[in-house]
Amino acid sequence: MTETVLTNIEKRRTTTVGWQGIVADWSSDQRAFKNVSWGKAMMWIFLLSDTFIFGCFLLSYMTARMSTTVPWPNPSEVFALTIAGQHIPLILIAIMTFVLISSSGTMAMAVNFGYRHDRRKTAILMLVTAAFGATFVGMQAFEWTKLIMEGVRPWENPWGAEQFGSCFFMITGFHGTHVTIGVIFLIIIARKVWRGDFETGRRGFFTSRKGNYEIVEITGLYWHFVDLVWVFIFAFFYLW
Amino acid sequence: MAEVTLHATPHATPAAHAEGHQHPIKLYLVVWGWLFVLSTCSYLVDYFNLQGYLRWSLIVLFMMLKAGLIVAVFMHMAWERLALAYAILLPPLVLLVFVGIMVFESDYTLLSRIIFFKTGA
Question: Residue A85: helix, strand or coil by DSSP?
Answer without folding.
Answer: coil
